[in-house]
Amino acid sequence: MPETLAVHLNRDRLHAIEAPDSFETADSFVVEIENHGEAAHAHLRLDDGLAEIASLPTGNHYVRTGTVERVPISVRDPGPLTGTLTVATAYGSETHDIEVAVEPAAGKQAVEIDESLIEGSNSTTTRSSGTASTTTSASGTSRSTSSSPPSTTARSGTGRSSGIETPGLLAGTALVILVGIGLLFLDGPAMFVGTIAVLGGLVVAGYLLLY
Fold it and tell me: Per-residue pLDDT tens for 80-97?
């Protein structure tokens, strides 16, 4: 929507012109002439500088009592340029000059960003990156641990953990068997004990040979 330049006629007295001394715009704008008194002729004129980049459909405007006349002023070039718009009534006996500045950035307000918001955003990003790195490191360690081969010592320890070597056990078993055979030649309880010793020795010897 184009900017509006308000001009009031006959509000305080006959032929009086009320308008701002300066006006800024970035593009085409509208001169809104409101007549508060008797019907009057209003004349708009652009100086040479402003006429180079702007134009209006006609300079003379008849404004009836209690009505508003809207006059569009077309800006062909966004400037920057400063010129003068003159409003005249009573056949030029009353005039009012308005300095018009055509600026590409006119009407645009600069938005200031609080630096603390930027610092807070950077801090949050840093913490998030650190957490991601820690998680990756932890998962990497887990994979490394799970992929390592089983310990040779652990496998060998599940066999014969008694600490007594197999040849010694076999020798002891053979001695028991020999004693049992000797007792078999005796009468009474000695023969029974010898039989038990021989059988037990054979069982132990068989187990050692198998494992």
Answer: 999 999 999 999 999 999
SS3 37: coil
* Residue 130 placed within a domain: no
Task: Decide: 118 and 42 in contact? Cβ < 8 Å.
Answer: no
Phi, psi (deg, nearest 5) at residue 120: -65, -40
Q: For residue 174, what are the domain limits? A: 164-210
Does the CA dihedral 175-181-183-185 come out positive or negative?
negative
- Rounded to two decimals, the pTM is 0.51
Q: Which of 51, 48, 71 is nearest to 61 (CA)?
A: 71
**DSSP helix, strand, coil percent of the chain (3-state; round to 5):** 40, 30, 30
